[in-house]
Amino acid sequence: MGSRIACHFAGIGVQVLLLDMVPKEAVDSTNKAARNKLVNDALQAAIKSNPSPVYHKDALKKITTGNFDDDLKQIANCDWVIEVVVERMDIKQKIFEQVEKFRKPGSLITSNTSVFPFT
Q1: CA separation (Å) from 111 to 15, 48, 61, 87?
Q2: Calpha distance 102→13 (Å, rounded)
Q3: pTM of the full predicted structure?
Q4: Contact 20, 34 (CB under 8 A)
Q5: Is 79 helix (H, G, I), strand (E, B) or coil?
Q6: 77 DSSP assignment
Q7: Residues 71, 63: Cα–Cα separation, whole Å
Q8: What is the Cα–Cα distance from 56 to 8, expressed in whole angstroms?
Q9: How many CB atoms lie within 10 A of CB 114?
Q10: For a disulfide at 16, which of 6, 50, 67, 99, Cβ 3.0-4.6 Å?
């Protein structure tokens, strides 16, 4: 879902930073491609889906991919962070704790959830 949201925002001209977990088999790797395999595979799957969330291939130039371990600090340059992780409260809380360390003061932090009430 996160990659599709990223594609929609890129399609309207917004620069997007799309992050995902480091695959278990790449945790000790220094190979950036291996560490970004999940995020890049998800983005490619979104692009190839029918209908595709990408209306113009130029929009893909607006998407930068990375992973939570290496690249979360880049959210310091973002005005809006949208959390789109698995529907498990413990994982969402962990992500929000990390986001709080790096976010830009005044940035908008939102969650894409359909399971958990915001109260």
Answers
A1: 19, 25, 25, 11
A2: 24
A3: 0.90
A4: no
A5: coil
A6: G
A7: 14
A8: 10
A9: 5
A10: 6
